[in-house]
Structure formats: C-alpha cells, structure tokens
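Here is one such tokenized protein:
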Amino acid sequence: MKRPLLPLVALFCLCVPFLTLAQQTAVDFFESGIGKSKSNDFTGALQAFSMAITMNPENAPSYYNRGLVKANLKDHRGAILDYDRAIEINPKDAMAYLSRGVSKSKQDDHRAALLDFSRSIELNPDEPQAYYNRGISRNKIEQYRGALADFSKAIELDPANVLVYYARGITKQKLDDFSGSLPDFTKVIELTPKRSQAFAGRGISKTELNDFTGAIADLNKAIELSPEDSEAHFYRAYAKGKLEDYKGALADYDRSIALKNDNYKAYYGRGFCRGKLGDQKGAALDFSQAIEMNNTNNDTKVVYVGRITHPILDNLRNKVEERNRIGVLSPERSEAYFSRGVSKNKQGDQKGAIIDLNKSIELNPTYAEAYFTRGLIKSAQGDQRGAITDCNNAIKLNPRYSEAFYVRGLIRHSLGDENGGCLDLSKAGELGYTPAYKAISDVCN
C-alpha cells in the first residue's frame, strides 16, 4: 500500500527553516545581534554574534560587540578575551580599548585599565568617556591630580555630564580643595535635583569649611532623599555637635551606627555627645569601642608657700574647663583616648584618666589639650611640678593657650614663685581668659 504523499505546502514549510538558515550570512547574524542587544536580549545577542564569528572569524566588530554583550551579562573576563581579539584584528579601534578598560576596572585591575584608557585617548582624543573612565581609575590608585585633569577635560568635551562633575567634586575633596568642590556639587544639584549624593558631598565639604549650618541644610536634604545613607547621618551628627546640639547629634550618631556599625569615628562622636550630656559611663563605653575597633604617678612633695594655698588652688583650678571640643578623629585615635580620659576623670577615676591621657600623648605628642588636661589632673592629685611640666608643654605647642598660662600661674604662685605666677596670670588675661584678672586682683597686689 502506498503511503500518502505530504501536501506540497507542508513539504515546503519543512524545508524553509533549513533553507533560511543556510542562506543567512555573517552579516545577517551580526545585524540580528545588534538588534537583540538594543532590546536587551543579551543571551540572544550572544548567540547571534557567536554565529557571526563562526561564519567570519576575522571580523573585529563581531568580537567587540560580543564583548559588550558579555560585559552586560557581567562576564568581564570573557568580554576581555573578545576585546583582545578585536584589538588583535584592528589595533586602531579606540572603543575596543575603552571597553576593555571598563571590564578590567570592573575586576579592580585599575592599572591595566589605565593603560587601555590612555591608548583609547591616543586614538580618539575627543571622546569624553575615555577621560572620565581614566579619571576614575586614577582615583582608585590615588593619582588624584591626574584624575582631576581627566575630569576637567571630560567636562570641557561634554559639559552636561552630571557624573563627571560629581567625580571631580569628590576628587577635589581628596585633595582637600573643599571650596573648589562646592561648585561641582552645586552643578550636579542644578542638573539633577534629586541626586542625594550631591547634597551629601556638598554638605561634607561645608562641614570641612566650618559652615556647619549650611552643611546641616544640605545633609538634611541628602537624608530626605536617601534615609539609609550612614555617612550623611555621621556628618550631620558631627556638624550638630560643632553647634553644640548634642541631643540632635546623638540621634544621628545612633542612626549612623545602626546603618554601619564599623565606623569607629561614629562611636567616638557619640561618646563625646554622651559625655557632654552627662552620660559618662556610656561615653567611656563608646570611646573604648572607638579605640578598640580595628586596633589595636608622681609622688613629688610640694610645699605651698604663697597666698594660694592648696584648698584655694583646688578651688580656682577646678573652675577651669578642659578644652574638650569634638574634632576629626585621626587614624591613631588619640582623640578618643583623650575624651575617654576626660570622662573617666569626671567619674572620679583619676588613675584611669591619666593612663588614657598618657596614651593619647604617646600617639600624638603635639596634642596640647591632652597635656593641659593631664596637668589639671596631676595638680588635683598634688603633683604640682608634674602639672607645671604639662602646662609648659601645652604652652610650647600652643603659645596662645590662655587657660594653660592661667593654671600654670596659679600653681607657680602657690609654690612661692609669686612673680612668675602673676606674669602667667597676666598673660592669660592678655590672651582673653578674663578670670585671670580676678586672681590677679586677689593675689598679685
């Protein structure tokens, strides 16, 4: 029995796919890959470019575009291999160097990326993206001045690129050019008013420039736009502390630590605020955290022979406040030891306070406030000669340290050096410490 023949139309349909596939050229697959890339069908694009390469393995654009697709699929190692081949076939393709540099930077190979961006610029000196990317890589390896030059060139070529203004502002901050960074952040805000990072960046620069009110306004906006920004909370807390809004600062430090609990500077700042608000125990805990995170007595006999007896000295000296104002916490954490020492002293732990102040001075031998505060405590312990030595060091480091002159004057007078003591009190008054004049009236005339 004869089997029925397939209808002619059906037979034709079965043959069409094979015929069509056979008739497609490398160009067809390449164009298909471009179309699929534009529609974000990167998997389909990858297959299309691979077919184009199979049919024509010497076509550099196929390798280049497949590299772009792989990069969009986060396969930067594979992308680099395709860019390598594209460059091998066509060593004058500036975009291939640029794209290879991007993939290398995604793998944190910034020095190799830098070479690719530089080659891309040599081949096409008018491409702003190459300067921008080279600036980013230079930033990553701390070549900040080179990065600044690259960002400026990118802006010259493309004045509307918001990302470059922001990157240049950040680079200026790294070069301590906080004033220069302000126009860049302002430009970003003008072009994109909802970009929280620009408000945060400008707020940080204003903080460094001691414009704490302006800083808080910018940081308020940054936090409104991005409530989870730990750094913005930290700097707003710092600015509030500078304005003596310790309760407001405390809330921001709490939030900053909740969002990022490994910022030792935030613990230091919170400890400082707690101390100012009378929570010395909490302050000491925070200072300890700041110190430990990622880190690592004189019995000289004294005879009081002047009119300033021991009780009078204690009374006058104890009215002097140590200079404990929040500042930037340095990498060695000397400020945290200092502040913890102040808190311990307020809790009556003079021995612990001296230990912390010793460590603070060891870490920062130019810390005038630490010498002065240690001198106050030594004087309270009866070690007046040790106290004088500390006051001497404080004055040597800061010749306008009026409180140090005042306390040294009191102590010298109490030890019988009436002339030297009164001269010190006079100097303290001259420098603006007005209580010195009351002491002068009482004991120097």
Q: What stands out?
A: Residues 176 and 265 are 19 Å apart (CA to CA). The chain is about 75% helix and 0% strand. Residues 21-287 form a domain with the Serine Threonine Protein Phosphatase 5, Tetratricopeptide repeat fold (CATH 1.25.40.10). The longest helix spans residues 8-23.
